[in-house]
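Purpose: get a first structural picture of the assembly so the mutagenesis plan has something to point at.
Setup: two entries, given in the order below. No constraints added.
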Amino acid sequence: MTESRSIRIEALTRVEGEGGLHVKLNGGIIEDVQLAIYEPPRFFEAFLRDRSLEEVPDITARICGICPVAYQMSAVHALEAALHVAITPEIRRMRRLLYCGEWIESHALHMHLLHAPDFFGVDSGIELAERFPDEVNRGLRLKKHGNELLEVLGGRAIHPINVAVGGFYRAPKRDELQRLIPDFEWGLQAAVATTRWVATLDFPDFERNYDMVALSHPDEYPMNEGQVASTSGLLIDVADYEGEFAEEHVAHSTALQSVRTSVNNCYHVGPLARVNLNFDRLSPIARRVADEIGFAPPCLNPFRAIIARGLEVIHAYEETLGILRDYRPFKPPRIEYEYSAGEGCAATEAPRGLIYHRYAINDAGKITFAKIVPPTSQNQRQIEDDLRDWLPNVMRDDDRQTASDCERLIRSYDPCISCSTHFLNLTVERTQS
Amino acid sequence: MSNTTQALFVGFGSPHGDDQIGWLIADRLARDGTLPTSVVVKKAAIPLDLLDWLENLDCLHVCDAFQGAAIPGELRRWEWDVVSDVPTMTELFPNFMRLRCQGSHDFGLAAVLDLALRLHRLPHRIVVWAIAGDGFDVGNSVSEKLKRALPTVTNSIQNELNHA
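Result (structure tokens, whole complex):
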């Protein structure tokens, strides 16, 4: 006897993308969980072929409106590796500043409008704003600061246009950055208050023995550079990434899923992984707040990623202030290069986790090959794996409530898959043998 | 220019077909140069951008394309007076709520206006301008019908902004 029921949630507006979740039950046993991504592939890697390498940062930025900097940063570092271009410390610092802006705007948005509503039993950030106007206003002001930083450095807040292979098309003027300082001084205090607030949320008692993967750098909290590290002890150069991690196709998804090939297992990327692997390189105030709220690595509860995001927002504000106060316009804003055939890869840390790019170019400066591995494709199999463990805790006769609890777990990853779960159609197939 | 008496016009759009019309109108308004200095013109792709621009405003005009039972190029206008106990945008215009709710991180325009209402950030007056589009296919240019309608709809909006 088979009992099959389906639930359609028409407007799941707090994750990015379109997809569904299919759960198969045999009696009380969960037989299968499939995060089915049915949005069509977007073919960005194919678009890039035969394009001039200078176009890559602007084209890849279009992959995402929330984290365009992550795509730009990974692209320029990979192309510079292919061209053997060494950037100056000043350019490197400006790239970290740009990434700080993206982390602030992306994390502030997710924390306040996408994730926090789950902890108060409300359906949206709009309802949350009615109950917590001060907190939501504060979060929106943080997001605005991130956008302003992107605008000054990148030319505009969404899909910045100032990022170039070799550096920037234009270095900002000193006063353009200095005038941001008062807002960022306020923002640092606000980020601390926000992190204290999210630490008081009521978190489900759910931990998993994750293999968490992030960049790790001996001297700094990772953004643009580092080795690939994992909580299970992996430590490899980015150049060896594809020897350890592979994307696999599964029939139920148009998006590829990543696995660690040496152990044939899924893994977890994102702010929780970064904090767990790089806690001692967080900024002093971020570490102090972590101590104060009792957050210590390793944290293995995915719902607590909202706290990790808060700590990273504090870090980003503190690092931003340091750069803004010391800033002097630099020359050249961009390192010149000559075309030569080659191949290069890079990994950076997008707000929602490690992102990997590899490009091959010919001696006319055209792209002959592109590979882009976004963070959410790396998390997809992990999310399915989590749901298998999570479902026994939340499986009820009311499928709508079950769907809601599953979405809550999915949202804790801040999935940004324009290939996942915008309309989450949860089908529960119940079989009794 | 006063800091507290301002009208903001925001043209929403994307590069896809007639969805560009909000941007094209904003471009024409800005280029024309005859608007009062108290009127600021901006373009946006994401409704959440609005939240960063609402300080010290008396009136907000938003403009976007729409799909529906209308002749391409037809201009619709709604006005929302934000007084105490005002119904939310969603309650006033339940169908409008669906216009731009296809994003996820990206809140729809009505949702952003509702959020701003609850956060007491809205100016007293909101005017929504919507222009019926003919096609919204990815990467297409704006349709001939909307190109022809562009001067007329821009003039209508400009006439009102001149008295803002």
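The mean pLDDT of chain A is 88.
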